[in-house]
Structure formats: C-alpha cells, structure tokens
Amino acid sequence: MTTPHQQPQAQPPGGGPAAEAPSTAQAATQTAQPLSYTKPPQQAPAQPPAQPPAQPPTQPPGADHAAQYPPPGGAPAGAYGGGYSSPIPITRTHLGHAIASEWTKIRSVRSTMWTLSIMFVLVVGIGGLSAVGRAGEDNISMPMLSSGLFGLMLGQICIITLGVLVVTSEYGTGMIRTTLTACPQRGRVLLAKSLIFFLLAFVMTTVACTLTALIHHSVLSGPVDRLDYGYTSYEESVKAGEFVVQDGEWLGATVGAGLYVALLGLLSLAVGALLRHSAGAITTMMGVVLMPLVIALFMVGEAMETLREKMLEFSPLNGLASLYLIPMQDDQDASGWPLLGLLALVTAGALMAAYAMLTKRDV
C-alpha cells in the first residue's frame, strides 16, 4: 500500500527486473507537490475598433486650381483626365516664348562665345594691322576704311559656321525632337531661331566693323570734315594729296557690312535647315561664297567674258567689297547696296524653302 505522496515504481517493459529505487536521501529530499488546477484569468472580450467620425466629402486634389485655371481653348474641366493638376498657370504660348527659349540655347552654348570671339579678333586685329601698315604709304587711291575688308573676309566664315550650327547641332544631338515637342508650331521655331541669330550676328559684326573703322580713321587721317577744304569731289581731293572719307563710306563700312555678313549667316541657317548636316551645310556655304570668284578668275577668252563679268559682279565677296567702295570691276557701280538687297531676296527665298521642308518632314 502506497501513501498519497508516493508514486508506484515504473516497471520496465517486457517484465524485466525493476529499476533501482532511489536512495533514501533522495526520497527524503523530494517533496510532494499537491495536485491542483489554476483557472486562467478570463480575458475581456475584444471590442471592435472605433469607427472614425464620418467626414464630409472633399474635392479632389487640384479641383480649386482647375476651377481657377480652366483648360485652354474652352475645353471642359475634365477634358485632360482627372487627378493631379499642375500648380503652374496654363497660358497660351506665343512667339515670345520661342524667342526666349532660343536665346537661352544660343547664349548657353560655348561654341557661340568662341565663334563670336574669334570673329571679333579677326575683324579688329587684321583691320588694325592693315591700318598701321598703310600709315606710312603715299598711295591714297583706295578709300580710307577699305582695309577693314581684309579682316571681315575671314571673320564672315565664323558667322557662316555659327549660322549652320544653330540648326544642325540640334539635329546631330537629337535635341530637335525635344524642341519640336515643346513647340509643335515649326514655323515659329524657325522664325525664333532666325530672329535671335540675325540680331546677334548683326550687332556683333557691326560693333567689330565700327571699331575697325575708328582705328583706321584715327591712324590714317585727321578730322572727317577735311572735305570742306574746297574740293568738289573725292577724286580732286586725292589728286591734291588729301586722304579723306568719301560720302557714304562710314555707313557702308559699318552698318552695311554688318547687314551683309548677318544675311550671309542667316542664309547659312536656312541651308542648315535644308541639309540637316553640319559639314555638308558649311561646305555648301563656302562654295557659295568663294566659288563664283574663283571660277571667274580662271575664265579666259572673249567667249566667256560676259559670263566672267556677271560672276564677278554677283559674287558675295564682290558685294561685300562694294560696301567698302572697292568693287572688283572698274565699270561697276561703287555702291554695294543693290547687291545687299539681292542677298536679302535670296536669303528670304532660302528661308521659305527651309520652312516648307521643315513642315513636310517628320523631324
């Protein structure tokens, strides 16, 4: 018989001998634990989450802005899809936006600064050296400001190159796609490029030519009013040994030369828009400027005399030289303004062709 605090010996399986009973000391130290049941604490029933107080429906984001700035063109308020509305006011684009964009592009490109700087150095530097070289000569048969032509003949190449790059650089980099996406009116893009480039080229070239003319006048002559000495014409003053400025020479050597070179650059821009390739457009413009004069120099014989004279007369270099009152033919009118008007007509025709091609092509 066992006591309540003792448990029976466990029998090994298979009827083997019983395991060795614990020692008396171990049995004495073992204390019996009373069997008892502890009821777990009851948890409070889970309460459903409190519902937030109902709020009145609010307007979608940007609804107040959409009401303040409706879509352009009288379109309904949801014509462009729901959701976000830009905080930037929606305004109709115009030519001023395109002009601002083109001005930002042309002034932020390094090639513009370098090209115009080289042009300025060539025109003023070579013109100044020519004036110093003529200071000790007795020959005063050429007009006083005519030496400024030498530097401008090289400086115009920089303006021609810049005019081509204004358009073809965007085709080369793929930027033209972004430009036409931002301004789908392609005629507006071409007009903005033409205005910005023409004004920039005209101002820079005119400033360089004016500075060159001032250097010539200060080195080669005294006051401009030396014609008041009683000479009735420039030829009589030359015979008398006076070195003076002819009538209209200042205007042609400054404003006229600036207009002529700027128009050549604008013609280059149109050729660049037509060809869409920098090297091809620059090569084409070099041929337009130089080839008529070069070909005319190699035309010999009476049969080709008439063609030779026409090529010399209407060559771009002769038009520029005529503004300095040094035409390449003796029987030609010394004024270069008619040739300047002819160049303006050719440039306008090239720009219209560029506009037609720009609107016809995909890009």
Automatic annotation (TrEMBL):
Query: Where do the record's region annotations for Disordered lie?
Result: 1-80
Q: Does the keyword Transport apply?
A: no
Is Isomerase among this UniProt entry's keywords?
A: no
Name of the protein described by the UniProt record: ABC transporter permease
Top-level division of the source organism's lineage: Bacteria
State the organism of origin: Streptomyces gossypii
Q: What is the lineage of its organism?
A: Bacteria, Bacillati, Actinomycetota, Actinomycetes, Kitasatosporales
Entry keywords, A to Z:
Membrane, Transmembrane, Transmembrane helix
- State where composition is biased (Low complexity): 18-41
